[in-house]
Each structure stands twice: as C-alpha cells, then as structure tokens.
C-alpha cells in the first residue's frame, strides 16, 4: 500500500507540472479557441532561462538571500522574461491571423513552436543541460510511513499555491471576470466595454509566466532539460486540458493532476514502458463516454 | 456571366491544359537530368504528396481535425515490413494488403470516436497516433523490433528481371501512384461522395438534416485517407529497406497537417505545393544548417499571414454564385 501512496505522491508532483502548463493552454483556448502549440515551448524556454540564471547569475542573489532566494528569483526572472516573450509572440504570430479563422492560426502556432524550439537549440546548443544540484537540500521525509523528498514537498506546495492564486484571479478579480466573459461570448463582452486586446495581453502574460515557473520546477525535479522537452510536456498538458474539459480552468487543473497520478500508477502496476499508452487509452475512453471531457459542460449544437 | 467571359474561361482552360502538360513534361525529364541525390529528394516529395493527398480527404474535404495521420502511415509501413521479412510476401502484393490493413485499423479505431467534434477529435487522433508509435517502440509479440524497427525489406519486383531497385525507378513508381491518386480524387471531388463531404465540412447539422449519413461519410473519409497513407507506408518501407518508430512521430503528423493548410484545404494543386514546401525547403536551406528550421517556422507564420487560405486555395461554386447574384441585381434594377 505504501508503494501506491508513494506513486500517488510522485503522480501528483508531475501532475502539478501538467496542470500548470495545461492552465496556459486552457486560458488561450477559452478566449481564442486556438490550440497554442507554442505553449509547450514557452515552458521549455522558461526552463532554460531559469537554468542560465541559476548557473551564471545566482551567486549574487544566493549570497544575499540564501539558496531559497536564488531559486525564487530564478523563477521570477523566467516568469518575467516569458511574459514578455509570450506577448511578443502573440503580437507577431497570432494577432495578424485571427481574422482568417482558426485553422491558419493553428499552423502559425506550429510555426511559432518550431521557431522557439530551434531558437533554444541555437542559443543553448542541442545537448542536454544539467540543472545545478542541491538547490534544495536532498532530505527524505517520512510522513505516515510514506517516503517523500523535500523537493517534492516544495514543488507540490508551490504548484498548489500558484493554482490557488490563479483560481483566485480568475474567479474573484475584475480581470478574471473579463477573461471569463470573453471566453463565454467575445462579441457581447466587447459590447459591455471589455477590451478584448487587454484580455489577450493578460492571458499571454499569465500563461507563459506560469509555464516558465513550471519549467524551472521541472528542471529542479529532473535536473536535466532539453530543447525538445516542450513538445513532450506540451502534448501531455494538452491531453490534460482536454481530459478536464477544454476552456474550463479548474478542469485543466484536475485533468493535469489525474493524468499525472494515472501515469505513475500505470508505470507502477502495469508497465513503465506502456504507461503513456495507458494514459492515452484512458483519455480516449473518457472522451467516448463523455465527449466534452470530465468537467466540460454539455454543449448544445449551434444551428 | 456574359459570353465574353465564357470564351475567356475557355482560353484560360486551354492555357491550363498547356500548363499541365508542361508540368508533366518536367516530371518526366527531371530524373534524367540530375543525379541520384536530387531524384531521391523528388521521391520524398512524392511520398509527402501522397500523404498530403490522403490527409486532405479527412482534413480538407470533410474538415475533420486529424493530427494522428502518421499512425495510419505507420500501420501501412509496418504491415509491409513485417509480412515481407517474416513471411517473404512480395512488396507489390503487400501494396493493397497495407492499404487494407491501414483502412481496417482506421475503421476499428475511428468507429467509436467519430461522433466527437473539432478539438476533441483532434486530441483523440493525436492519442491514437501516439499509441501506435509507443506500441511499435515497445515491440509487442517481438514483431516490430522495438526502437530499432524492422530492416531487410525487399525491393518491389514484377518477377524476373523487372525489379524496382534504383532511385529513378522508385521516382516513377511513387509519381505514377500519385498521378493515379490525383485522377481518382478529382473524380471523387465532383461525385456525390465529394459533395456530401464538403456539405459536412461546411455545416454538419444541415448536412445531417438533409439526409446525409454524416457518420458513414466521415468514416469513409477516414478509411480512404488511411488506405492511401498505407500505400505511402508500403513504398516508403521498401525504399528505405527499413522502418523505425521515429519516422512516424507526432511531428510527422503535424507536418502533414501543415501540408494541407499551407497548400489550401481541398485543393489538389495546393497539396502538391504544400508537400513541395515541407519536403524541399529543408533540403534547399541545408547550407544554413542550424538556422534552417528557424527559417522554416518563420516562413510558416508568414505564409499564414499573407495567404491564410493556403497558397492555392480551392475555388468552388463561386462563379455560379456571383452570376446568380448579378442576375438578381439585374432583376431588381
């Protein structure tokens, strides 16, 4: 039974990565009905920027604020850079294409993804990069007989904090209300005085920033990053988005966590090499019986 | 439309036929003018053209988001590879077998999911493609050879000395198949089936209400598209003499998706241009080495900015419609 609990903890850890990336997909989809393929690469780029900061710039910060300060500053740096890059990518690659409809925007998103991925490769090189070790003391804790590392605990705490903050922003603030209104009905929202461009600006800063922080956390967790990792995580996170019901933010969070737990349980009890097959099979089964995802509301057919 | 534009149309049609013959001429002469490297590039162009045409049935004609098309391609290639290396069945016999295997797979997989809409169908096809690729890597029943794949596949042979084993022969094999496919698809576009497909793409609910069996026609599109992808897989496997899972990744499906959208949905000449872009661009920009994919992505964005409907979008029915409109205006005036 301990094995199962440990796998669930592992699953929640990687599930929280998927959830945080999925939130970016879901926000963009909700407002623009666009699958933002570049979002996975925002995440990867954030991871590299955090890496660069931790390797070259953290000495100053860590001497003044300690290890924890260095880590937090690295995350904030990555988040800030990616917020800027996210807005720039939206301006350059997506905004001119909205009027043409959804499908051209998908190709443009794929193009942006290729550009970002290869930009990472050109800047940092095609080889794996190793995150600095011992950012967080390697302590194993025993809680009710379950092994959990300090790093996992920190990652889980931070992810849930970020998700809570985002949930608060979306559900309780004026900005969040504007995003939800735009997602529901763009034209009516515009007529009510909501600035569509501001909403887009907001989701393209928030989504990539969350992705970048996740990138730094993934780097700390696996200690190894590569320029192609955006695709793998992006695909999983997109799966999580759909699993929860696309455009539904709490759904995306739960979808990510469920996906991570399923993956780890599948790896433990079925087979490690078949775990992704298991995940995709579950996804297909869910969609056969609930065609709009686990938490998606029933959509009426528009005639 | 008055008489003047009709003769203009005829003149245009005449020039179109001339252009068609010129293109055919270039295709026939090209392999005799260049060395094997360039013939091989043209061969891969042909493979992508065939794959693009096969995805065009699903995505372009019916408007179903299929981002797992490489899965069908893989089924075709692996059917050929396994049956040829294990049982020694000749490649050309396996050509229809691969097509049927991929079509059958598409039928079985797509039957339960065909009712899904838009992006939900998209993620399920992604999942399907990934399941195929991961299954091939995991080597079920020791058939697929794991990450290394299957190697030692024969050349296609017509018996006796007639064996397709040089670049130029492969070039003609693939382009003859592409030509036959184009002929068939053009006929299909103007048939009852093609019209039903386009109706479903434009308005699924209205199509259903007009008595079109939406489910049947959607499945038909998947089955036909998969069969063509299976044919492409067969030829690809015998040309490379080996298949491995990495040729059938999600990336490959995305590139096929881009072929259709860059070219123009439902437009056959557009698909050829899209396939040329995807297959020739990385070769032409080889001197730029690390930067070539960077440029590739930028060009993709720019193309969608300036030609969002594709390079050569398909025009359908616009002439009749405008004439009807002008007639109505005349009546009212």
User: Mean pLDDT score of chain A, rounded?
Assistant: 86
Q: Outline of chain A, from the CA principal axes?
A: globular
Distance between the termini of chain A: 52 Å
Helix content of chain A: over 70%
What is the number of E strands of chain B? 2
In spatial order, strands of the major sheet of chain B run: 1-2
Largest interface: A-B, 48 and 44 residues
Distance between the termini of chain B: 17 Å
Low-confidence stretches of chain A: none
Fold and architecture overview:
The complex is a heterodimer of chains A (about 300) and B (about 325). Chain A is mostly helical and about 300 residues long. Chain A contains 10 helices and 4 strands. In chain A, the strands form 2 sheets. Chain A has a two-stranded antiparallel ribbon. Chain A has a two-stranded antiparallel ribbon with strand order 2-3. In chain A, a hairpin with a 2-residue loop joins strand 2 and strand 3. In chain A, helix 1 (about 1-30) crosses helix 5 (about 175-185), helix 1 (about 1-30) crosses helix 8 and helix 2 crosses helix 8. The model of chain A has no long low-confidence stretch (mean pLDDT about 85). Chain B has about 325 residues and is an all-alpha fold. Chain B has a domain at about 55-250. Chain B contains 13 helices and 2 strands. In chain B, strands 1-2 form a two-stranded antiparallel ribbon. The two termini of chain B are about 15 Å apart. Mean pLDDT of chain B is about 85; it is low at about 1-5. At the A-B interface, helix 3, helix 8 and helix 10 of A face helix 5, helix 10 and helix 12 of B.
Considering the chains and any ligands shown, give keywords for the structure.
heterodimer; A: 303 residues; mainly alpha; ABC transporter involved in vitamin B12 uptake, BtuC; two-stranded antiparallel sheet; 10 helices; 4 strands; 76% helix; globular; B: 333 residues; two-stranded antiparallel ribbon; 13 helices; disordered N terminus
């Amino acid at each position: 039974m301990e094995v199962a609990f440990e796998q669930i903890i592992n699953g929640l850890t990687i599930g929280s990565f998927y959830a945080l990336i999925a939130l970016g997909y879901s926000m963009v989809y909700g407002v623009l009905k666009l699958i933002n393929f570049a979002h996975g690469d925002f995440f990867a780029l954030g991871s590299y920027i955090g890496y660069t900061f931790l390797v070259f710039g953290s000495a100053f910060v860590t001497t003044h604020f300690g290890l924890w300060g260095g880590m937090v500053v690295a995350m904030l740096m990555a988040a800030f850079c990616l917020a800027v890059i996210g807005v720039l990518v939206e301006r350059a690659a997506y905004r001119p294409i909205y009027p043409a409809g959804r499908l051209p925007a998908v190709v443009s998103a794929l193009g942006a993804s290729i550009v970002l991925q290869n930009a990472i490769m050109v800047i940092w090189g095609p080889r794996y990069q190793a995150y600095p070790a011992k950012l967080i003391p390697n302590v194993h804790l025993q809680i009710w007989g379950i092994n959990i590392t300090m790093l996992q605990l920190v990652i889980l705490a931070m992810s849930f904090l970020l998700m809570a903050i985002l949930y608060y922003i979306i559900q309780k603030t004026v900005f969040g209300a504007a995003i939800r209104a735009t997602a529901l009905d763009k034209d009516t929202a515009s007529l009510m005085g909501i600035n569509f461009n501001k909403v887009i600006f907001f989701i393209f800063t928030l989504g990539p920033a969350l992705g970048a922080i996740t990138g730094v956390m993934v780097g700390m967790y696996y200690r190894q990053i590569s320029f192609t990792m955006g695709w793998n995580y992006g695909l999983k996170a997109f799966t999580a988005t759909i699993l929860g019901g696309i455009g539904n933010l709490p759904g995306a969070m739960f979808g990510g966590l469920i996906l991570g737990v399923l993956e780890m349980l599948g790896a433990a009890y079925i087979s490690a090499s078949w775990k992704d097959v298991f995940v995709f099979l579950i996804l297909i089964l869910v969609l056969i019986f609930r065609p709009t995802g686990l938490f998606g509301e029933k959509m009426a057919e528009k005639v | 439309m008055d008489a003047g534009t009709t003769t203009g149309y005829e003149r245009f049609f005449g020039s179109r036929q001339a252009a068609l013959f010129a293109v055919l001429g270039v295709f026939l002469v090209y392999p005799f003018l260049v060395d094997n490297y360039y013939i091989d590039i043209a061969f891969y162009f042909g493979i992508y053209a065939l794959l693009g045409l096969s995805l065009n049935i699903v995505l372009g004609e019916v408007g179903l988001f299929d981002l797992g098309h490489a899965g069908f391609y893989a089924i075709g290639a692996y059917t050929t590879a396994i049956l040829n290396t294990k049982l020694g069945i000749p490649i050309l016999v396996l050509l229809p077998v691969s097509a049927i295997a991929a079509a059958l797979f598409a039928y079985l997989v797509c039957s339960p999911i065909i009712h899904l809409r838009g992006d939900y169908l998209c993620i399920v096809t992604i999942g399907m493609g990934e399941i195929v690729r991961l299954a091939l890597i995991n080597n079920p029943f020791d058939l697929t050879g794991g990450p290394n794949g299957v190697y030692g596949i024969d050349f296609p042979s017509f018996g006796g000395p007639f064996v397709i084993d040089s670049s130029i022969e492969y070039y003609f094999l693939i382009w003859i198949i592409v030509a036959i496919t184009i002929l068939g698809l053009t006929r299909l576009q103007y048939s009852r089936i093609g019209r039903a497909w386009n109706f479903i793409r434009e308005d699924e609910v209205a199509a259903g209400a007009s008595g079109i069996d939406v489910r049947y026609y959607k499945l038909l599109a998947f089955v036909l598209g998969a069969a063509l992808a299976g044919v492409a897989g067969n030829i690809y496997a015998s040309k490379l003499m080996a298949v491995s899972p990495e040729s059938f990744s999600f990336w490959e499906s995305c590139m096929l998706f881009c072929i259709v959208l860059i070219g123009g949905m439902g437009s056959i000449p557009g698909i050829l241009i899209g396939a040329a872009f995807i297959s020739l661009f990385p070769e032409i920009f080889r001197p730029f080495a690390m930067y070539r994919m960077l440029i590739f992505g930028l060009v993709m964005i720019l193309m969608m900015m300036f030609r969002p409907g594709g390079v050569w979008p398909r025009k359908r029915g616009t002439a009749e419609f405008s004439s009807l409109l002008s007639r109505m205006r005349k009546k009212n005036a």
